[in-house]
Specification:
There is one protein chain. By secondary structure, the chain is of the alpha/beta class. Among the domains are: about 230 residues, Rossmann fold (3-Layer(aba) Sandwich); about 140 residues, Response regulator (Rossmann fold, 3-Layer(aba) Sandwich); about 50 residues, GPCR, family 3, nine cysteines domain (Tumor Necrosis Factor Receptor, subunit A, domain 2); about 260 residues, Rhopdopsin 7-helix transmembrane proteins. About 35% of the residues lie in helices and about 15% in strands. It has 26 helices and 30 strands. Strands 10-9-11-12-13-16-17-18 form an eight-stranded mixed β-sheet, with helices on both faces. It has a six-stranded mixed β-sheet with strand order 1-3-2-6-7-8, with helices on both faces. A four-stranded mixed β-sheet has the order 28-29-27-30, with no helix packed on it. Strand 19 and strand 20 form a beta hairpin. Helix 1 packs across helix 3 and helix 21 runs antiparallel to helix 22. This is Metabotropic glutamate receptor 5. It is a multi-pass membrane protein. One of its GO terms (molecular function) is protein tyrosine kinase activator activity.
Length: about 1200
C-alpha cells in the first residue's frame, strides 16, 4: 500500500514539475531543528483569472504573508529558548507559499509528503543513488505536522492529502463548518471557532436592528458557501428573510461584480443590508463596483471575519465602505511580535526569502545590490525606511501564534508520555507517529498569547469569541475601524450610540411593516416569509401567532386584546321577551276560543249542525287544536328534559290528531260523492258509520305516536347548546333535523291527503259547504307549512317559528271549520234545521224501480222523449236544464211494474244535482192505480191511466196544465215506418182490466183538463214536462207549487186515484216538495176501502174494457209498502237504517201525485222509505 502511495505521489510530482516549467520557481523558508513543522502561508495573492492555469501568484502580502512568516520564525525561537517546553529538543520549520489557491497549496503539500516518505525509507539519513552508490547528502527531516493554510477551501484540499499519511494539521483561520466533521477530516484541528458561531453572531446583529429582509453575498468556495448556508438556516429560524443570495469568486472581473451590484440594486429600497460572508478581496471587489455604479451609501455591508478590520480591503474605497459592520475574531495584538517585526531590515533579515521582495513592494523602491532587486521600481530604497510607517498587525496574528504553540505543546505532551524522565527525543518518538501526536494534540490545554484558554473539543474546534467592528469616518477624509461590541458564547453586546449617531439614522431593511393589533401576516405567493400583507382576523378569531388567526371554540368570543377567548353567556327564551309574549298571548286567545267552541258543540250536540258535522271527529279535531296551542308553553319554557319530551309529543301529535280526523271526514265525503255519480242503484260504501270513522282516525293518530316513540329511542330528548350565530349560544332541546322532519313529514302527508280529498269535493252541492270549508282550511294550512319549512331551517329563531306555525295552523282549522257552525248555532238558529242540510235549489228527480240495471243510463232527450227504445241522451233547453226518463221494468218482488220519471235540473255553471225519488207501484194482475172514472169515459174521456173503457170511476182533480198527475198513456201514432212500442214513460193511472186486449194502435194522450176536453186541446206530455223544466229556475218552490197546487175537480173526481194508498183526509200533508228532514214520520195508513177503480173509455172511442175481477189480494187490504223502496244515494250526513247506524234515519219522504181541491190530501202518496231520502 505504501508503495502504491509513493508511486502516485511521484507521478504527481513529475506532472506538477512538468506543468510548472513555465511558472515561477517556488521559494521555501527553512529553519533547522530536531523536529520539523511545516507551514503554509499565503505570502502572495492568489493568481488572477487569466493566470490561474499558470498558477502564477500575485503580489506579495504583508499581513497574511510576511507577518505570518516572521511570526512562525520568531515563535519557534521563543519556544526553543523556553526550557520548560520541549527541553533539549529544537523545533524547526519549513514554510511554503500557498498563494491562497488550492492548486498551489496542494503542490506545496506534496513536497511536504515527498520529503517525509524519503526520510522514512532511508537509513541514517543517507540516500542511495540510482546506480547503487551511496551519497553523503542528508535529506530533510520529515514533517510531523502542518500549520495552516488560512483559507477553508484550501485547507480542505490539503487535509484530504495529509490525512492519508497521518499528518496532523492545525489551522489558524480556516473556519468552515465542514472541517468539523471528523469522519471526513480526522487529522484536522483549528484554534479558531467554526463558521457556525460566526453565522450566529451575524444573525444576532441582524435581529438586533430588526433587519428582516436582507440580501446575501458569499465568496465561491468552502468558506463562503458553508458560512452562508449556516447564516441562511439560522436566519430562517429567526424570521429573517433573504431577498436573494449571490456568490462570486474573489478574483472575478469587474463585469461580474457590476452584474452582482445591479441585482442587489433591484431589491432596493427594501433590502438595504447586504450580509457578506466573503473573503477580504471579495468585499473589495464589491466596493469597487459600488463606486463604478454610483451606489455609495445605498447599502450597508455586514461582513464576516474575512473582512474583519483589514485596511487592504478598504484602501481607496473608504466612502463606499462607511457604515459597514464586520465581525473579527477576538485576538488582541501581540506586542512582542510588533517589537520584533518593526525592527526587521532587508539587510539583516536573510532567513525570510520573501522579505526583500516585500520591502520593495511596500515602499515602492528597489534594493540596489540585492539578489532580489526589482528593476521595475525606479526609486531606490534608502536606510530611513521603516516598517513602523502605517503598520497594522495581522488580525489573526494571535491565532497563528497559538497554532504554533499548540503543535509545540502537543509534541511536549507526547514526549512526556513516550519518554518519561528523558530530555530530548527518545527512541519511542523515532519516527514520530502521527496518530499518537493527534491524540496528544486533542488533549492540549494551555493559555494563549491573548490570555484566553486554548483547547479543542471533540471536533477539533476551539471556542469562539468575536469583536464587532464598525468602519466609520472619524474625521474629514479619515476613516477607521472602531470596536462597537462583542459576541461571546451566544451573547451579543453592542454600543448602539456608537454605531448610530441618531436613532433616526438607523437603516431599515424590511419587506413589510409590522402588522397592527388584531392582524396577522399573510405571505404573498412566491415571496419570502418576510414579505407579507397584514390581514385582520375575523371577528371570532384571536391572534394565535404572527401568522395565524385561531377561531374561538363555539360558545366563546375573543377578548378585547385578541389574545384569547372568553365564554359567551348562554341565552334562552324568557317569558318577558317580546316574541314569547306575542306567542303566549296568541296561544292563550286560541286556547280560550277552542274551549268556547268545544263547549258550544257539547251543549248543542243534538242539533243538525253538530250532527251533520260528524261530531265525534270534530271533538278529535278540537282536541288536536287545543294541544297545538299548549305546545307554545312547552316550547318557550326554559329547556329541561321533561319539556323536551313534551315538545316532541305536542308538535307531532297535535297536527296528527286534527288532520287524521279531517282525512277521515274528507275521505268519507269523497267516497259518497263518487258513489252518487254512478248508476242509480249503488252499493253502499263501507266503513261509513261513526264508529268506523273513529277507528280510522285513531289508527292514523297511533301511527304518529309510534313515530314519536321510535324517535325517543333513537334520539333520547335532552338539552344542548345551539349556536345560531358565532356570537350567540342558546339552550335548547337536542332535536335533530330527523326528529323534526319525520313527524312533520307524516303530518305533511296527512295535510296533502286532506288537500287532495278537499280538492276532489270542491264542487259538492250547496248543502255540503263543510267540504268547501275543509278545502279552504287545507289550502291555507299548506301555505302556512310551505312558508314554515324555509323559515324554520333558514332562520335562527326556530322555537318562535315553530310556536307561531303550530298556533296558526290550529287557528286556521278553528276559524274555517268551526266558526261558521258556531255562528249558525248562536246567531242563526233558524238555519239549524234538517232541511238546510238535505235540500237544494238544484233538483235531480228519479221515479222508477231503482235497479242498477235501470234505464237511467238510457235517458233520452226531449226530442226523443216518446221513443220506445230511445238511447241515452240529453236535451238542453235555453235555460240550461234537461229532462230524462226511463222505461218500465219488472220488479224483482211481486208482479209490480215500476216506472221511473227522472227530471234532471242541471245548471251549466253549477253541476250540482238533487235527487227526489218517486216510485210508482203498479200491478198488471190485481192492482190498479186510480181509475179516472167508473164509467166508460165519464163524459170527458179523462181516463187517468186506463187503456180500456171504464166510466164512472173517479177522476183526479184538474190541476191545470202544470199538473203531472194528469198524464195518461195512449196509443202513439207514428208515421211510416212504424216505430217499436214500449210502455209509456209516465203512467199515473192504472191500466184497464182489458189491457191484454190492447192493440198496437194505442197512442198516449195528455189530459190537463177533465175528460170533457178534447185530446187535441190537451197538449202533449213532452210539452208539459218541457214547460215544467223551462219555468223551473233556481228555486224549487215553483215546481212544488205546480205539482202540489189544487185543481178543479173534474168528472169522476169523487174518488181518489188509488184507494189502496189513500191517506185519511184528516192527515195534513206538507205543501212543498221535500224530503222532509224535519217532519216527523206519518202514522201507518189504514186502507178502508177495496173498491175496484172504474175504467174510462179511451178518447178514441175504443171498445170498453172491463176491469179485472177483484182478486183476493185486492180484497185483503194493505199493499206491501216495503216494495216501495226509495232508491236514493245515502246521505253524506248520516247512515241508512240498513247500515246499523245509531243515527236516526230520515223521516218519511212523501210527495203527492194526485192533489185534491181540499187542503186535506186524499191523494196517492208514497211513504215509509226504507232508505234515507236526502239530496246530494
Amino acid at each position: 500500500m505504501v508503495l502504491l502511495l509513493i508511486l502516485s505521489v511521484l507521478l504527481l510530482k513529475e506532472d506538477v514539475r512538468g506543468s510548472a516549467q513555465s511558472s515561477e520557481r517556488r521559494v521555501v523558508a527553512h529553519m533547522p531543528g530536531d523536529i520539523i513543522i511545516g507551514a503554509l502561508f499565503s505570502v502572495h495573492h492568489q493568481p488572477t483569472v487569466d493566470k490561474v492555469h499558470e498558477r502564477k501568484c500575485g503580489a506579495v502580502r504583508e499581513q497574511y504573508g510576511i507577518q505570518r512568516v516572521e511570526a512562525m520564525l520568531h515563535t519557534l525561537e521563543r519556544i526553543n529558548s523556553d526550557p520548560t517546553l520541549l527541553p533539549n529538543i529544537t523545533l524547526g520549520c519549513e514554510i511554503r507559499d500557498s498563494c491562497w489557491h488550492s492548486a498551489v497549496a496542494l503542490e506545496q503539500s506534496i513536497e511536504f509528503i515527498r520529503d517525509s516518505l524519503i526520510s522514512s525509507e532511508e537509513e541514517e539519513g543517507l540516500v542511495r543513488c540510482v546506480d547503487g552508490s551511496s551519497s553523503s547528502f542528508r535529506s530533510k527531516k520529515p514533517i510531523v505536522g502542518v500549520i495552516g493554510p488560512g483559507s477553508s477551501s484550501v485547507a480542505i484540499q490539503v487535509q484530504n492529502l495529509l490525512q492519508l499519511f497521518n499528518i496532523p494539521q492545525i489551522a489558524y483561520s480556516a473556519t468552515s463548518m465542514d472541517l468539523s466533521d471528523k469522519t471526513l477530516f480526522k487529522y484536522f484541528m483549528r484554534v479558531v471557532p467554526s463558521d457556525a458561531q460566526q453565522a450566529r453572531a451575524m444573525v444576532d446583529i441582524v435581529k438586533r436592528y430588526n433587519w428582516t429582509y436582507v440580501s446575501a453575498v458569499h465568496t465561491e468556495g468552502n468558506y463562503g458557501e458553508s458560512g452562508m448556508e449556516a447564516f441562511k438556516d439560522m436566519s430562517a429560524k429567526e424570521g429573517i428573510c433573504i431577498a436573494h443570495s449571490y456568490k462570486i469568486y474573489s478574483n472575478a472581473g469587474e463585469q461580474s461584480f457590476d452584474k452582482l451590484l445591479k441585482k442587489l440594486r433591484s431589491h432596493l429600497p427594501k433590502a438595504r443590508v447586504v450580509a457578506c460572508f466573503c473573503e477580504g478581496m471579495t468585499v473589495r471587489g464589491l466596493l469597487m463596483a459600488m463606486r463604478r455604479l454610483g451606489l455609495a451609501g445605498e447599502f450597508l455591508l455586514l461582513g464576516s471575519d474575512g473582512w474583519a478590520d483589514r485596511y487592504d480591503v478598504t484602501d481607496g474605497y473608504q466612502r463606499e465602505a462607511v457604515g459597514g459592520i464586520t465581525i473579527k475574531l477576538q485576538s488582541p495584538d501581540v506586542k512582542w511580535f510588533d517589537d520584533y517585526y518593526l525592527k526587521l531590515r532587508p539587510e539583516t533579515n536573510l532567513r525570510n526569502p520573501w522579505f526583500q521582495e516585500f520591502w520593495q513592494h511596500r515602499f515602492q523602491c528597489r534594493l540596489e545590490g540585492f539578489v532580489q532587486e526589482d528593476s521595475k521600481y525606479n526609486k531606490t530604497c534608502n536606510s530611513s525606511l521603516t516598517l513602523r510607517t502605517h503598520h497594522v498587525q495581522d488580525s489573526k496574528m494571535g491565532f497563528v501564534i497559538n497554532a504554533i504553540y499548540s503543535m509545540a505543546y502537543g509534541l511536549h505532551n507526547m514526549q512526556m508520555s513516550l519518554c518519561p524522565g528523558y530530555a530530548g527525543l527518545c527512541d519511542a518518538m523515532k519516527p514520530i507517529d502521527g496518530r499518537k501526536l493527534l491524540d496528544s494534540l486533542m488533549k492540549t490545554n494551555f493559555t494563549g498569547v491573548s490570555g484566553d484558554m486554548i483547547l479543542f473539543d471533540e471536533n477539533g474546534d476551539s471556542p469562539g469569541r468575536y469583536e464587532i467592528m464598525n468602519f466609520k469616518e472619524m474625521e474629514k477624509d479619515y476613516f477607521d475601524y472602531i470596536n462597537v461590541g462583542s459576541w461571546d458564547n451566544g451573547e451579543l453586546k453592542m454600543d448602539d450610540d456608537e454605531v448610530w449617531s441618531k436613532k433616526s439614522h438607523i437603516i431599515r431593511s424590511v419587506c413589510s411593516e409590522p402588522c397592527e393589533k388584531g392582524q396577522i401576516k399573510v405571505i404573498r405567493k412566491g415571496e419570502v416569509s418576510c414579505c407579507w400583507t397584514c390581514t385582520p382576523c375575523k371577528e371570532n378569531e384571536y391572534v394565535f401567532d404572527e401568522y395565524t388567526c385561531k377561531a374561538c371554540q363555539l360558545g366563546s368570543w375573543p377578548t378585547d386584546d385578541l389574545t384569547g377567548c372568553d365564554l359567551i353567556p348562554v341565552q334562552y327564551l324568557r317569558w318577558g321577551d317580546p316574541e314569547p309574549i306575542a306567542a303566549v298571548v296568541f296561544a292563550c286567545l286560541g286556547l280560550l276560543a277552542t274551549l268556547f267552541v268545544t263547549a258550544v258543540f257539547i251543549i248543542y250536540r243534538d242539533t243538525p249542525v253538530v250532527k251533520s258535522s260528524s261530531r265525534e271527529l270534530c271533538y278529535i279535531i278540537l282536541a288536536g287544536i287545543c294541544l297545538g296551542y299548549l305546545c307554545t308553553f312547552c316550547l318557550i319554557a326554559k329547556p329541561k328534559q321533561i319539556y323536551c319530551y313534551l315538545q316532541r309529543i305536542g308538535i307531532g301529535l297535535s297536527p296528527a290528531m286534527s288532520y287524521s280526523a279531517l282525512v277521515t271526514k274528507t275521505n268519507r265525503i269523497a267516497r259518497i260523492l263518487a258513489g252518487s255519480k254512478k248508476k242509480i242503484c249503488t252499493k253502499k260504501p263501507r266503513f261509513m258509520s261513526a264508529c268506523a270513522q273513529l277507528v280510522i282516525a285513531f289508527i292514523l293518530i297511533c301511527i304518529q305516536l309510534g313515530i314519536i316513540i321510535a324517535l325517543f329511542i333513537m334520539e333520547p330528548p335532552d338539552i344542548m347548546h345551539d349556536y345560531p350565530s358565532i356570537r350567540e349560544v342558546y339552550l335548547i332541546c337536542n332535536t335533530t333535523n330527523l326528529g323534526v322532519v319525520t313527524p312533520l313529514g307524516y303530518n305533511g302527508l296527512l295535510i296533502l291527503s286532506c288537500t287532495f280529498y278537499a280538492f276532489k269535493t270542491r264542487n259538492v252541492p250547496a248543502n255540503f259547504n263543510e267540504a268547501k270549508y275543509i278545502a279552504f282550511t287545507m289550502y291555507t294550512t299548506c301555505i302556512i307549512w310551505l312558508a314554515f319549512v324555509p323559515i324554520y331551517f333558514g332562520s335562527n329563531y326556530k322555537i318562535i317559528t315553530m310556536c307561531f306555525s303550530v298556533s296558526l295552523s290550529a287557528t286556521v282549522a278553528l276559524g274555517c271549520m268551526f266558526v261558521p257552525k258556531v255562528y249558525i248555532i248562536l246567531a242563526k238558529p233558524e238555519r239549524n234545521v234538517r232541511s238546510a242540510f238535505t235540500t237544494s235549489t238544484v233538483v235531480r228527480m228519479h221515479v222508477g224501480d231503482g235497479k242498477s240495471s235501470s234505464a237511467a243510463s238510457r235517458s233520452s232527450s226531449l226530442v226523443n222523449l216518446w221513443k220506445r227504445r230511445g238511447s241515452s241522451g240529453e236535451t238542453l233547453s235555453s235555460n240550461g236544464k234537461s229532462v230524462t226518463w226511463a222505461q218500465n221494468e219488472k220488479s224483482s218482488r211481486g208482479q209490480h211494474l215500476w216506472q221511473r220519471l227522472s227530471i234532471h235540473i242541471n245548471k251549466k255553471e253549477n253541476p250540482n244535482q238533487t235527487a227526489v225519488i218517486k216510485p210508482f207501484p203498479k200491478s198488471t194482475e190485481s192492482r190498479g192505480l186510480c181509475a179516472g172514472g167508473a164509467g166508460s169515459g165519464a163524459g170527458s174521456g179523462a181516463v187517468a191511466g186506463g187503456a180500456g173503457a171504464g166510466g164512472g170511476g173517479p177522476e183526479p182533480p184538474d190541476a191545470g196544465p202544470k199538473a203531472l198527475y194528469d198524464v195518461v198513456e195512449a196509443e202513439e201514432h207514428f208515421p211510416a215506418p212504424a216505430r217499436p212500442r214500449s210502455p209509456s214513460p209516465i203512467s199515473t193511472l192504472s191500466q184497464r182490466a182489458g189491457s191484454a186486449g190492447r192493440t198496437d194502435d194505442d197512442l198516449p194522450s195528455l189530459h190537463s183538463e177533465p175528460a170533457a176536453r178534447s185530446s187535441s186541446s190537451q197538449g202533449s206530455l213532452m210539452e208539459q214536462i218541457s214547460s215544467v223544466v223551462t219555468r223551473f229556475t233556481a228555486n224549487i218552490s215553483e215546481l212544488n207549487s205546480m205539482m202540489l197546487s189544487t185543481a178543479a175537480p173534474g168528472p169522476g173526481a169523487g174518488a181518489p186515484l188509488c184507494s189502496s194508498y189513500l191517506i185519511p183526509k184528516e192527515i195534513q200533508l206538507p205543501t212543498t216538495m221535500t224530503t222532509f228532514a224535519e217532519i216527523q214520520p206519518l202514522p201507518a195508513i189504514e186502507i178502508t176501502g177495496g173498491a175496484q177503480p172504474a175504467t174510462a173509455a179511451p178518447p178514441s172511442g175504443g171498445a170498453a174494457r172491463e176491469p179485472p175481477a177483484a182478486g183476493p189480494e185486492a180484497a185483503a187490504g194493505k199493499p206491501d209498502l216495503e216494495e216501495l223502496v226509495a232508491l236514493t244515494p245515502p246521505s253524506p250526513f248520516r247512515d241508512s237504517v240498513d247500515s246499523g247506524s245509531t243515527t236516526p234515519n230520515s223521516p218519511v219522504s212523501e210527495s203527492a201525485l194526485c192533489i185534491p181541491s181540499s187542503p186535506k190530501y186524499d191523494t196517492l202518496i208514497i211513504r215509509d222509505y226504507t232508505q234515507s231520502s236526502s239530496s246530494l
